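Re: beginner question about structure tokens

> Can someone show what the tokenized structure looks like for a real chain? I only ever see the sequence side.

Sure, here's an example I had lying around. Input first:
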Amino acid sequence: DDEVDVPDPASAFQPDDVFGASEVIDHTAFKWRATEWRGRPWHEAVILEAHVGTFTREGTHRAMIDKLDHLVATGITALELMPLADFAGKRNWGYDGVLWYAPDSAYGRP
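And the corresponding structure tokens:
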């Protein structure tokens, strides 16, 4: 077989990293329930830039959820997560992400 398999560049998930097949994700499956939420004025923002892979021992998005109450208690009002886009390898700062619409599979699923 001389064919080369490549992921869809607009993929929303790469379960086997950047060299594997893309997985189709149903973006309508999540039902947003906070219909009245509008955010807060940006001049009130206290932003924390957090590296998903090193923020918790588990290094996943789900593990970060357990830390949200602590962040709120310290005055953090917004999180800038990095890196989000899928990248080659296990750890990365995200500056060379290759699949911009897919979260890195090491951090969890959409």
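Each token stands for a local structural state, so reading them left to right follows the chain. Residues 42-107 form one domain.
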